[in-house]
Write a structure and sequence with these properties.
There is one protein chain. The radius of gyration is 23 Å and the shape is globular. The protein has a single domain (about 35-165), classed as Nuclear Transport Factor 2, Chain: A, CATH 3.10.450.50. The protein has a 6-stranded mixed sheet with strand order 2-1-6-5-4-3, with helices on one face. The chain has 4 helices and 6 strands, in the order αααββαββββ. The protein has about 170 residues and is α+β, with helices and mostly antiparallel strands.
């Protein structure tokens, strides 16, 4: 009886693709991607949200131009304006991603937007809600405003953030 079962199993598997070596996905990638099209301003915000949701510094890093800077008011030092560059921002964000259980970023209304359809430069002020879950008993909620300055090399190219100004109080 055993040889018959084995033979029957081999016959069934002979017509199937190898389950341990699935075929390559040759689709064009247009169906179902969770990432946005960074050639659109809204795609930048979608990818920003997804980088936080998946705590993925690779996605996050692809949003930032080489000349990127983050600017904020340092209220612990009398409210002086402080800033840091791309490398420090990626290190800081990576640390946030590694030390949290969950990050929920919601981009709300666009307060102001300066961008023409054929422009290579954009400035968008938008409010957001960020819920940072360190543990079940340690959850921090932040509501604020982000002013993002973006550039692209040419029409049809991806937008990259050149400056993020924390416009929160």
């Amino acid at each position: 009886m055993r040889p018959l079962v084995l033979l029957l199993a081999l016959a069934l598997l002979a017509g199937c693709d190898n389950p341990f070596a699935p075929a390559l996905d040759r689709s064009d990638g247009s169906g179902g991607s969770i990432l946005g099209d960074q050639r659109q301003i809204e795609g930048v915000f979608q990818n920003f949200r997804q980088s936080y949701a998946f705590r993925d510094s690779t996605i996050y890093g692809q949003l930032l131009a080489p000349s990127f800077s983050f600017e904020y008011n340092d209220y612990d030092n009398g409210g002086i304006v402080d800033r840091w560059g791309r490398d420090q921002d990626i290190r800081t964000t990576h640390g946030l991603f590694q030390n949290t259980q969950r990050l929920d970023l919601v981009w709300n209304s666009v307060i102001s937007s300066v961008v023409a359809p054929d422009s290579l430069h954009a400035v968008v002020l938008r409010n957001f809600n960020l819920t940072v879950t360190f543990s079940a008993s340690d959850v921090v909620r932040v509501d604020g405003y982000a002013k993002l300055t973006m550039q692209r090399q040419a029409i049809g190219e991806v937008w990259m953030i050149t400056q993020w100004t924390d416009a929160s109080n």
